[in-house]
Amino acid sequence: MNDLVPDIDANVPLPASANEAMPELSVKEELAMRARTVKMLADLQGKPIEVSEEHRGEAMQMIEQIALNKSSPDLAQYPNETIAYLAGMVAQYDHMVVRELADLKIYVVNKLLQETDNVDGKLRLGALKALGEIDGIDAFKKRSEVTVKHKPLEEVENELLETLQKLERRTISVSARVVSNENHA
């Protein structure tokens, strides 16, 4: 059997530790990464993740700590079950917020549509303006287009020389002379 030896660059320093090699992650990114790892390990071992009341309590305390202190918890100190439960809570919370925001946008659009029938012209105009500014409608969005033409360098040089020659033809010859300022009184 042949040994497989990876190609190693000689001048690339190795990190001192695994922590140094890891990129900076937000709490949400680190939690998602840890939860995926916990899930993968449970799947490989064929053992389901069983979350107890204690794990649920720890996850709730961690959420409160993050919400009140705005501090990043040390996720490494918590057991796998707590991490899995917390990741599930965060995923559910994100999904609920997105769904609620979409519902809220629909509600606002519907209310604005109702206001477009208002007898008061100011309210009607305000509602129409607000509707026109909604993302996706963009009735009042100013757009500008930029066309980029890629040309070979020789063509650009020729155009530049032509422009300079046209400007040169427009110039007039002048000569400097001294004008004395005599007052004739």
Q: How would you portray this structure in words?
A:
The protein has a domain of 111 residues. 6% of the residues are buried. The longest helix has 36 residues. It is built from six helices and no strands. By secondary structure, the protein is mostly helical.
Helices and strands in order:
Elements: H1 18-21, H2 27-45, H3 53-69, H4 80-115, H5 121-132, H6 153-170
Helix pairs in contact: 2-4, 3-4, 4-5
In short:
By secondary structure, this protein is mainly α.
Give short descriptive properties of this protein:
single chain; 185 residues; mainly alpha; 6 helices; 57% helix; flat
Radius of gyration: 35 Å
Estimated helix fraction: 55-70%
**DSSP strand (E) fraction?**
under 5%
Q: Main beta sheet: strand number and arrangement?
A: none
Average pLDDT across residues? Answer: 84
Secondary-structure element pattern, one letter each = HHHHHH
User: Which residues form runs of ≥5 with pLDDT under 50?
Assistant: none
Counted beta strands: 0
Shape: flat
Distance between the termini: 116 Å
Q: What is the helix tally?
A: 6
Q: Which structural class do the helices and strands define?
A: mainly alpha
